[in-house]
Specification:
The complex is a heterodimer of chains A (about 280) and B (about 775). Chain A is an alpha+beta fold and about 280 residues long. Chain A folds into three domains: about 45 residues, Uridine Diphospho-n-acetylenolpyruvylglucosamine Reductase, domain 2 (2-Layer Sandwich); about 110 residues, 2-Layer Sandwich (Uridine Diphospho-n-acetylenolpyruvylglucosamine Reductase, domain 3); about 110 residues, Enolase-like, domain 1 (2-Layer Sandwich). Chain A has twelve helices and 14 strands. In chain A, the strands form four sheets. A five-stranded antiparallel sheet of chain A has the order 4-5-10-6-7. A seven-stranded mixed sheet of chain B has the order 3-5-1-12-9-10-11, sandwiched between helices. Chain B has a five-stranded mixed sheet with strand order 7-15-14-13-8. Chain B folds into three domains: about 200 residues, Aldehyde Oxidoreductase, domain 3 (Alpha-Beta Complex); about 240 residues, Aldehyde oxidase/xanthine dehydrogenase, molybdopterin binding domain (Aldehyde Oxidoreductase, domain 4, 2-Layer Sandwich), CATH 3.30.365.10; about 150 residues, Aldehyde oxidase/xanthine dehydrogenase, molybdopterin binding domain (Aldehyde Oxidoreductase, domain 4, 2-Layer Sandwich). Helix content of chain B is about 30%, strand content about 25%. In chain B, a hairpin with a 4-residue loop joins strand 26 and strand 27. Classes of the chains: A alpha+beta (about 280), B alpha+beta (about 775).
Chain lengths: ~280, ~775
Amino acid sequence: MWPNTFDYARAGSVDEALALIGDEGKFLAGGHSLLPVMKLRLAAPEQLVDIGGIDSLRGISANGGLTIGATTTHAEIADSADVRAICSGLASACGQVGDQAVRNFGTIGGNIAHADPASDPPTVLVACGATINIQGAGGARSVGAEDFFVDLFETDLEDGELITSVSLPDCSDCQCAYVKFPHPASRYAIVGVAVCLKMDGGTCAQADVAVGGATVKAVKCGGAEAALAGSTLDDAAVGAAAEAVKADIADWLAGDIAYPESYRQQMAGVFLRRAIAAATTG
Amino acid sequence: MTTRIFGSGIKRREDPRLITGEARYTDDIKLPGVLHMAVVRSPYAHANIVGIDSSAAEAMEGVVAVFTGDDVDLAGIPTAWLIPDSDLKTPEHPALAKGKVRYVGDGVAIVLADDRYRAQDAADAVVVEYEELPAVIDPEEAAGEGAPLIHDDVEGNIAFRWVMGDRDASDAVFNSADVVVSERILQQRLLPTAMEPRSAMAQYNAATQELTLWCTSQNPHIHRFIISAVTGLNENKVRVIAPEVGGGFGSKIPCYPDEALVSWAAIKLGVPVKWTETRSENYLITIHGRDHVQHVEMAASNDGKLLGVRATVYAGMGGYLSTAAPGIPTILHGLLYVGPYTMDSVFCESIGVMTNGTPTDAYRGAGRPEATFLLERMVDNVARAIDMDPVELRRKNLIPAFEDGYEVATTLIYDSGDYPTAFEKALDMAGYSDFRQAQANALASGRYLGIGVTAYTEMCGLGPSQVAGAVGFQGGLWESATVRVTPTGKVQALIGASPHGQGSETTLAQIIAEELGFPVDDIEVVHGDTTETPMGWGTYGSRTTPVTGAALAHASRKLKDKARVLAAHLMEANVDDIEYADGSFSVRGSPDQAQSIQDVALMAHLAWNMPEGMDPGFEESQFYDPPNFVYPFGTHIAIVEVDAETGEVELQRYIAVDDCGPQINPEIVAGQIHGGVVQGAAQALCEGAIYSDDGQLLTGSMMDYCMPKADMFPNFELGETVTPSPHHPVGVKGVGETGTIASTPTVYNAVLDALAPLGVKQIDMPLTSAKVWGAIQAASANGGGN
């Protein structure tokens, strides 16, 4: 619980933050992912650049879809009427991160930069086709969430780049849910399933499905989506999707000593069914 | 008549300072010029130390010194429970490893620096070259052929082999029994996880040669004589202070290398030295609990008479024998094999095995949970084998009520008990017969409900010193206490025991208030400082209320006797005519004439007018050695539902009927039971330390080690019966460990009851959803249940 020595600077703007970061620096937002690993001496950045005071990075705007500033906290997202209306699955996922104290400090940008595979928001961002907006010394760029998450704790971010915001398409006409099977020790997801269903009468016109927790990164599940799309979400279709999702994640499985990969893979099927039930029963 | 203070659920007087953050723990105590100690710890479970290069660390800013095992001239850390007739080996436990490390976390060097961060930086800069050796963690494996030898002087890694009972007689019972059931039970390692990690700070005065050690101790007087022994200082030159101590559960009984090292460094360097462990260190080096591999059998007749139990226990001791470790899987374990049943044949062979795990020692219940679990598990197995309701089987075998002594086959003499009454009360509260119908209905709709019923008794209030001596405990088990009344009528009770969260400052004050009539708010209980308090052996084994409480009751009665004589003298009356009520002495027939206890205390201090031969002052002390243990008992019931799709267990109801004699403070009793039940249920459901094959602790933080959480539990339904201990002055029994002892088998058996229709017969604890689900799949592959 005794981190190595580091320098600390507080940036007033994105440009200042990018100028301060240097080769061995880390951006500090809520600190709820970075500081624990520093205390355990698993990370030892020489420079922390605090971006918590940069106003332009914070806040939620509804503009057809949603744009959520990188330093917006999980609690702010979970409580936002706009997020609940436009992407209720994200509000639900952010409301299930850690505990209230963590949600009050932890930020969406910090969360996805850390890319913990068992964290909740990335699964919804991948399911709903979010875009991650990034600023670097060379300018701004945007990456789809599915491409942003590369592997275990690994993202598309280059050294020195800063996530500025996350954009989401309008999902208000979808039925969304994020359902999580929490690890009893850490309350991270053993498996987390996000579904976003576009219904046309009794028929599912489009299904978006992603799984996290059971995998090294949030994984978009095309097989399960195909099984659901065009169906009436009857037992046979849901059963087929629950089988398909296990194959969708087979190449990306993760586990730990108590909850091995094989178990998590099976539970992805169970929790897909539960997520569909939650989405369709509101 | 005022409300009687004894039996009243008054609020814990400890809580305001704990809740507001005003409590002062060891780490809160700041001394000028203090140096911070960081310990360089082995990353290997078993390795030879080839070389240590501390030159880089020594050159770092703020670093005062680096010492290794070759520098530290302390005597070894002692083992203080020497089980007789067990061929006990006590391998040397140096404060810092010399030549070899034996578990991950074993101390190799210490760094002293002017700042905690710098100390850690320098500790990281000490370069230690190791030659890694094969490691062994499983105690049965460590006792087997070809296991790596951990101590050269502990052949086969077997530290002791303790046998209870007659093997031939046991064999005869088992050979002729109708039914014998058997099971291999794993009592997994548990991490005690007190809220406050351990901490120690030492200060030495070279002129007076006095050492003061502040530390997280459940027994500062024991720490004093062990620190005296390892440093060579006279015991009267060592002062040990346990300030506020944030929980222990047994983990703060032992004397650890860290306490010896801060003492040694403070003496060596002439400045105060402090060390406080991190949570990661706490999980690596502070003792673990349990760690048994048990091979258990139970014999019974076809009509449900329990005939005997026998077990071979491999008990993992870890890399060294901790302070009380040998006593846990032996005396505190085997002697409980009869439980509350009329069972005549018991046999236990307990083998203490050195392993490359963290040393184990007493953890809440200490040996008794491991005994109660195996007994209750086997009773359920017998019930299944003879197709009898497990409740009916228990009912048939419970010892009938007794008021004053019942000798059982393990040679213990239970003090008092009424097991059937507590049993039936719990069953009534649970609605047992209705539940069985509800369970059948649920099963018909594909839901899996289960019930577990545990009848238990346990031995606590440790204990008669003569017994302590006979079983090799290197100390007494009496307590002493002084009740000191100031001239203004305020009470200080000085006790040798050292409570650390149990609420004893409140309950012990209630005993004194009851005996002497002082308002409870006028009574302070002082503990934790060897210079301020009389000798005592500490707070563990649910002994503070039974033993210290008895000492205080007796000291209070002595004071009351003195007060009665003095009051008679002051009122010019005959002692025989003095009546006492609610803290006031009056003369029979003259109720107007009265002396309050405060009046008498003042007059005793003034001593202007004392009876012939009476000494001044108003203070009495009592040494109290209990004539027997106390044996609380009860019945616990759990109702669970298992989600067969995921393997998740939901604990739906928990009923606990406990009998600890008269309850001094029902709120505190309930709190002890709540905490104990949670701790024991967590062993069944989620807690367990896991090592890799090469001895790395994989559950090194709360991210992986599953501490129980409030939302895992229903509201507990508590009931009580009251059977006083016949030998105790106020009849009370201990209640600190009953919850932990009873709840593990209760919850476990409930889950296995739920899974019985699926054909699942056994799962190693903890019953995580993954293991339960895996067991369901395996049973299903084998054809499922009936």
